[in-house]
Design brief:
alpha/beta; 7 helices; two-stranded antiparallel ribbon
């Protein structure tokens, strides 16, 4: 039986240093609380999906969520791409040689364990897998071989990341398998989508509900939302949305 591992690549929880786009709407303190919930749920989903859970975090003092991982280590590198590559390489070097490994971030706490498991199982027939996000980036990257460097992909705009990763893998003679599309949580309007997703999962008695995220969102949902800026529209002017979360 092959070994499996999930590597979470994330920032350590730190005030004013996580989910900065959400913080412009939620404030730094509440954003940090929500991010901790994201990280906890991501680690717990990984625990359900795989044998070994690794957490590659930005440098700094220890934090409680580390206890949810089997292995913790600091990210190393000058750029995001270098840190990403180095995290995968470090994990691969310190795991058995036949280990299937997938990397996810902390911005998809609603990604069910069975989706992570399916990604790992897809590596039985593929050297690499990639899970594209609706925003043009990707939420998961996995390998059944020694990881291929994809640092160059992060020099491109977000909507070009997946094509660039595929190009780099093909250049290394690796044909990746494409997984289902998913959405991550980066912008204020993503919170509406996340809330709806969790509500639907609860009503249909889904096997996976990100409990920590659900609890923190419930604290926020009773608060009225006056106005916040969303993605720029095609006219170049920001779209404004009002309502209640």
């Amino acid at each position: 039986m092959r070994n499996d591992a999930v590597l979470i690549f994330a920032r350590r929880p730190e005030l004013s240093a996580v989910k900065t786009r959400l913080a412009t709407y939620l404030g730094d303190e509440f954003t940090l609380k929500l991010y901790r919930a994201f990280l906890s749920d991501t680690l717990m989903a990984a625990r359900e999906a795989a044998g070994t859970v690794l957490l590659a975090h930005t440098p700094g003092p220890s934090f409680p969520e580390q206890k949810l991982a089997d292995v913790n280590f600091e990210q190393r590198g000058l750029t995001f791409g270098e840190r990403f590559d180095n995290a995968l390489s470090y994990a691969a070097r310190n795991l058995p040689t036949d280990t299937r490994i997938v990397l996810v971030g902390a911005d998809t706490p609603h990604l069910p364990p069975h989706s992570v498991r399916q990604a790992l199982e897809a590596l039985d027939d593929a050297k690499a897998v990639i899970g594209p996000s609706f925003n043009g980036g990707f939420y998961l990257l996995g390998f059944s071989i020694s990881p291929i460097s994809v640092a160059e992909a992060f020099e491109e705009p977000a909507d070009r990341e997946v094509p660039e990763v595929v190009r780099l893998l093909r250049k290394a003679d690796v044909m990746p398998k494409l997984l289902e599309y998913w959405f991550d949580i980066d912008e204020p309007e993503d919170l509406f989508r996340l809330k709806s997703f969790i509500t639907l999962a609860e009503r249909t008695e889904s096997a996976w509900i990100p409990a920590h995220t659900q609890t923190v969102l419930a604290e926020m949902l009773i608060k009225p939302v006056k106005q916040y800026r969303l993605y720029p529209s095609s006219t170049g002017r920001p779209r404004i949305k009002t309502g209640i979360l």
